[in-house]
């Protein structure tokens, strides 16, 4: 699988779950902690090219997947 990028917060259960899914499946990923990096939802929107209302925001390679539910669906289809 292509490299996954997860934009999220450690205080977000959905974000942590997405990270754990990558770890348990051996999927290469980058975790971008929005709080530690001082990133706002607007900053993430600029990076992914769409409005951000919730976290996590997940990309596989350069393909935007969405949030936690969309990522789980994506993984089931692989």
Describe this structure as you would to a colleague.
β1 (about 5-10), α1 and β2 (about 30-35) form a beta-alpha-beta unit. With about 80 residues, the chain is an alpha+beta fold. It has helices at about 15-25, 40-50, 70-75; strands at about 5-10, 30-35, 55-60, 65.
Task: Quickly describe the structure.
By secondary structure, the chain is of the alpha+beta class. The protein has helices spanning 13-25, 41-48, 68-77; strands spanning 4-8, 29-33, 57-60, 63-66. The chain contains three helices and four strands; from the N terminus they run βαβαββα.
Key words describing this protein structure:
78 residues, globular, 4-stranded mixed beta sheet, Glutaredoxin, 4 strands, alpha+beta
